[in-house]
Amino acid sequence: MTTQNLRIGVIGAGRIGIVHAKSISQTTGAEIAWICDPIAASAEKLALQYSARSTTNLDDIFKAGEVDAIIIGSPTPTHVDLISRAIDSGIHALCEKPVDLDIDRANTIKDKVANAKSNVSIGFNRRFDPSFAELHARVTAGEIGNIEQIVITSRDPAPPPQSYIAISGGIYRDQIIHDFDIARFFISEIIEVSSFGGNLFSDEIKAEGDFDSAVTHLRGSKGELVSIINSRHSAYGYDQRLEVFGDNGALQVNNISPTTVTSFNSAGSEQRDPYLAFFLERYAASYLKEMELFIESIHSGKQLNPSYEDGCQALILADAATESAKTGKVISLR
Amino acid sequence: MTTQNLRIGVIGAGRIGIVHAKSISQTTGAEIAWICDPIAASAEKLALQYSARSTTNLDDIFKAGEVDAIIIGSPTPTHVDLISRAIDSGIHALCEKPVDLDIDRANTIKDKVANAKSNVSIGFNRRFDPSFAELHARVTAGEIGNIEQIVITSRDPAPPPQSYIAISGGIYRDQIIHDFDIARFFISEIIEVSSFGGNLFSDEIKAEGDFDSAVTHLRGSKGELVSIINSRHSAYGYDQRLEVFGDNGALQVNNISPTTVTSFNSAGSEQRDPYLAFFLERYAASYLKEMELFIESIHSGKQLNPSYEDGCQALILADAATESAKTGKVISLR
Amino acid sequence: MTTQNLRIGVIGAGRIGIVHAKSISQTTGAEIAWICDPIAASAEKLALQYSARSTTNLDDIFKAGEVDAIIIGSPTPTHVDLISRAIDSGIHALCEKPVDLDIDRANTIKDKVANAKSNVSIGFNRRFDPSFAELHARVTAGEIGNIEQIVITSRDPAPPPQSYIAISGGIYRDQIIHDFDIARFFISEIIEVSSFGGNLFSDEIKAEGDFDSAVTHLRGSKGELVSIINSRHSAYGYDQRLEVFGDNGALQVNNISPTTVTSFNSAGSEQRDPYLAFFLERYAASYLKEMELFIESIHSGKQLNPSYEDGCQALILADAATESAKTGKVISLR
Amino acid sequence: MTTQNLRIGVIGAGRIGIVHAKSISQTTGAEIAWICDPIAASAEKLALQYSARSTTNLDDIFKAGEVDAIIIGSPTPTHVDLISRAIDSGIHALCEKPVDLDIDRANTIKDKVANAKSNVSIGFNRRFDPSFAELHARVTAGEIGNIEQIVITSRDPAPPPQSYIAISGGIYRDQIIHDFDIARFFISEIIEVSSFGGNLFSDEIKAEGDFDSAVTHLRGSKGELVSIINSRHSAYGYDQRLEVFGDNGALQVNNISPTTVTSFNSAGSEQRDPYLAFFLERYAASYLKEMELFIESIHSGKQLNPSYEDGCQALILADAATESAKTGKVISLR
To answer: Is residue D2 scored above 50 in pLDDT?
Structure first.
């Protein structure tokens, strides 16, 4: 492990770029070298905050000797190219999900990534959430025996704007892809997918030919049964739960309120606060841990999962679920 | 409403007959007149306890002027005939689920039941559970707005003996039929069914060509999405949960421990006792309430739901889910 | 153990007499022989319900051969005389708390009770609550090691009418005496008492020279520390909690909602229903268990605790706490 | 508000100094200028981490123009002198609790502090805990009406070493002083104190003439009743709870587990992880918030509470409770 700080280039100075920049600043072993964004002001503002340089030109980052790793927080269509270019430049990459909306395009660099010397990780940050990670560790340690059923509940507080829905790739590739990755965190091989999509509340989402709700079943290669329950809205805030059921018991991850205050009055008892608002709050610790482990993985020379292959597999599940929801058929992946 | 006690005949002095006899004894407006069971000793013992007469001969019960209503707790194949005979005798009937394992046979008396003067109710007692009933009342009162998603978790503590599995009609008609009725308690018309059955832990169940686990999706006529999660075993006891999610919020029914004692020690905190063992304990209040309402329905001359038709509809869902699990297809009910 | 039903005389057909009559009717091994109340209509109504005889004259009950046991649910000033008379008649007695408001008067029959052949038990029913009883059993079994601290929270939903306050003997002898008994359930010898009484919300209670709130400390002979927190009102319903803290951990009894329904909406999450309204609901199971064990104790010839002595000891603590609250001094009981 | 970074001197490079240094590094508007500790290596190590200068000589810090504020994390006997010296030098000070073990000594600079231009705050960080702060804000906003009762549970995971006990000033001045401050957070004037101290498990603590457990009552000037329950050990981890009960309801702060994972198995259900280990983990957010607000208070020129006077008042309560525990008397503070 080298003791020198890694120089990091952050591509994309939007909402997620800001999160990653802050994570880097709180992590030992790395520093932000460049911020790149087509909007110069955004890049400059973020760069100023962390004493980094800013640019609108990607070439500045990929020049030899400028950065050791990049964080890809730019729009989805840029992901494949940027990963490819990073590999060509001997640069490590942590790329936001999804790898792409088109699995064929994602596959074009599959072999290249597999053979690359660079670390390429995909930002399914939920694997690093302290609760999800502890549950996974305890399942892996055998606490509940063989996994028989997994139930994932994942409801956003409110839908994104229609303009975003239009380019999102649909609920399965945009939202539920995180849940597919969590399913794969526990069950590496999924062999069957069946999904009901629903249009229960949003005319805007329906107008885009997309679903606002979905329930999905997966079957693992050892027969494990996974249920994923999704909605694009939730009156009581971001709803992120996980239950793993085995032959010796079950483990659950439940939602998080900002404090432990509970109230008691004539209307009811033991009421908690509304839950943490959305992913930036709920997964704050995950983003930080993800960055720490990504930086550590480069220092130690070990690949950090989720890998590019994990990113492709989640997309394959999203495609299969989309097809199932549209055709009313169960999709086999074998 | 008459003030005279209804005279009740209990058919079947097994486990469920004993529950119903006790319920009658705790309900005003009714008394046990006859206990009938092919095993004379069982009938006699139960009859003695409640100062009733016992018999092994059904004719004793159906004789004119002996009983006003019967409780059918005998094996499933007898249900249709007993209901039919009760109607012929002008006797009311509360019949255990399922109505039959064969929907065609059940249908043979469908019209007869529909036109009968007798009340005929099917014993889906969970509708009368205080928690399920309150949740239903609050949903009906509009507390959470339109129903969008329902999640039913229903896991038995341990599988029945293989001999019972062999004649049970399979997990969908035997166990999950209760959950289908709960789904229909909230969503009257189901239009689509998809299920994955699994063989995750029991070779005995597999040997009978049945599943030990299942995950099922239903779609309601207004687009509502239902997820039902089942297992024939559960290390932590009988697992019976319900979540109804609407556009304004959600309501849940959670599991019940026998006491509110929680423990705190070096291994963990806030631990509850294991849950109530099985349906006799968990649904004790439901069985009593069911009997009270059945007796009240006769006095008041109003039909008590779930009706015979409800019994048939749950069986139709069980058949569709069985077919889906076996063929790997989504089954349309329209 | 005799197989013949015990004949029970219920003295007092008010709220608590009704509870006890119902409990007897649900218990095997006993039947209600007489109901006695100075208000003839009350006695008659309750007697009719359970096919018993009614009277306004206590002599009818104490006549030789009429009853085997009495349940004393009449006003406090009658308790000592009725217990005494029961002993003289060779009749067992279960008497509501408190034994009397005057410890000197209670002491006049102390020896008589101690030497009596009759069972005399005092109705501190909370010891028989399934949650309190289980917690006690687990502490006794050593689960948390030595008892170091006990915290009892006991708040009524609303104060009784001023007319009742006037004759109640004060908050310590009327309400908190139950909590003193629970303290003694775990710690047999209390050596020190200190209490702060408060007048925080009720002018009516203040007008009677009584407190509406109190916090009390007890010290056990092994150094155990007990905190008792009381109020005569509680906006969120009857608040009855217990925490026993030992060197290996702690056990708690928490409050009970009528169902397990929880709600989630934009105002908050995980909200339970308001708690069970008051003692008749919260301690329904305790009253039944108390009666079962009292009847069983007579059949088996063993004294059931809490005994008359337990009743006196709780009163001594109530007196000491009253004195502490009024004088501002710590009261030593050694 | 100036935009220039405040230069901070951290006095004491031990456990708490390290916490404060980290907090400063995460707060905008300030930077660490000096670390001072009699152990040169400790000062140097911490200084290196934050690019500050280190010294063993306090004079380096108090020299004109070196620092704008100091954080006092050195042993208790140094507090009064350092605060005094800070005021003389026109330097602001955030001082760890207690102000001193001797109220007379603390009082010698009371007027000086009151008239100082420097901000002097005492580090009762719990007021800044997100849960305690939210509860306080909601009580202040009137959610539960008038405060009637407060229950504070505060148990350390394990006692400090005997050598620390010897110089700690006793459980009331060392541990419970935090709880006295929380009581005063809600009730500014306390008029009566009564406490039972106990020696329930530690011979070492007893050997020092100190208590290992305590239960304390306070009475506020409006009659409010406070119960404080303390222990120097707790098998299930750091136990920090608060209940504020008012005429319209109650609010509670409960304990925090590191994750939301709950487990279900044959031994029990809904088990949480053990709680956060001790104050560094449990109050991590409080320490950071305290520093942010202290720095902000200097920029804005407003005094941050808890003030030096708050520090003295908590000590007065600790002295009164100590006296009560030793004499067996209720102590009046009026």
So the answer is: no
Whether residue C2 has pLDDT greater than 50: no
Are D241 and D254 contacting, i.e. CB atoms less than 8 angstroms apart? yes
Q: For residue C7, what is the enclosing H or E element? A: strand C6-11
**ipTM confidence:** 0.95
Q: Is B191 on the interface with A (CB under 8 A)?
A: no
**High-pLDDT (> 70) share of chain B, %:** 99
pLDDT at D90 over 80: yes
Q: Six-digit token pair at A73?
A: 């927080």
Pairing state between β B213-220 and B225-231: antiparallel
- Give the span between the Cα atoms of A227 and B228, in whole angstroms: 9
CB contact under 8 A, B200 and A248: no
pLDDT at A113: 97
Q: Quick one: pLDDT at residue B334?
A: 87
Contacts of C258 (CB under 8 A, 6+ apart): B130, B134, C273, C276, C281
D115 to chain B, any CB pair closer than 8 A? The answer is no
A4 pLDDT tier (thresholds 50, 70, 90): confident
Q: Is the CB of A269 less than 8 angstroms away from the CB of C264?
A: no
Measured between beta carbons, the chain B residues lying within 8 angstroms of D272 are 268-271
Distance between C286 CA and the closest CA of chain B, angstroms: 12
* List of chain C residues whose C-beta atoms are within 8 Å of the C-beta of residue D227: 215, 227, 229
CA torsion C162-C163-C169-C171 (nearest 10°) is -20
| Inter-chain CB proximity D253 and A261 less than 8 Å | yes
Our CA-based measurement puts residue A15 at a distance from the nearest CA of chain C, in whole angstroms, of: 25
Q: Token digits for A163?
A: 């303009």
- pLDDT band at residue D4 using 50, 70 and 90 as cut-offs: confident
Token digits of residue C319: 């007196």
- Residue B172 and residue C163: Cα distance in Å, rounded? 61
CA distance A86 to C156: 69
Tokens coding D111: 């007027």
3 state SS for D312-326: HHHHHHHHHHHHHHH
Asked whether the predicted pLDDT for residue C3 surpasses 80, the reply is no
Give the closest-approach CA distance of B278 to chain D in angstroms.
14
- The mean of the pLDDT values for chain D is 96
The pLDDT assigned to A188 comes to: 87
C-beta atoms of C268 and A235 within 8 A: no
Q: Which of C136, C254, C260, C286 to mutate to test the interface with B (most CBs of B within 10 A)?
A: C260
Tell me if D176 sits within 8 A of D204, measured CB to CB: no
Contacts of A26 by beta carbon, 8 Å cutoff, 6+ apart: A288
For the purposes of burial, counting CB atoms within 10 Å of the CB of A305, is it exposed (0-12), middle (13-18) or buried (19 or more)? middle
Residue at token pair 């058929």: A329
Inter-chain CB proximity C261 and B251 less than 8 Å: yes
- Letter string b/e over residues D49-76, b meaning 16 or more CB atoms within 10 A of that residue's CB: ebebbbbeebebbbeeebbbbbbbbbeb
Query: Are D255 and B269 a contacting pair at CB < 8 A?
Result: yes
- C-alpha C238/C-alpha B197 separation (Å) is 46
Contacts of C131 in chain B (CB under 8 A): 259-261
Q: Do B249 and C266 lie within an 8 Å CB cutoff?
A: yes
Interval D141-152 mean pLDDT:
98
pTM of the complete model beyond 0.90 = yes
- Which among C255, C264, C266 is the nearest to A269, CB-wise? C255
Are A245 and A186 spatial neighbours (Cβ–Cβ below 8 Å)?
A: no
Q: Say whether residue C266 is in contact with chain A using an 8 A CB cutoff.
A: yes
- Residues B172-226 have pLDDT tens digits of 999 999 999 999 999 989 999 999 999 999 999 999 999 999 999 999 999 999 9
How far apart CA B32 and CA B38 sit, in angstroms, is 18
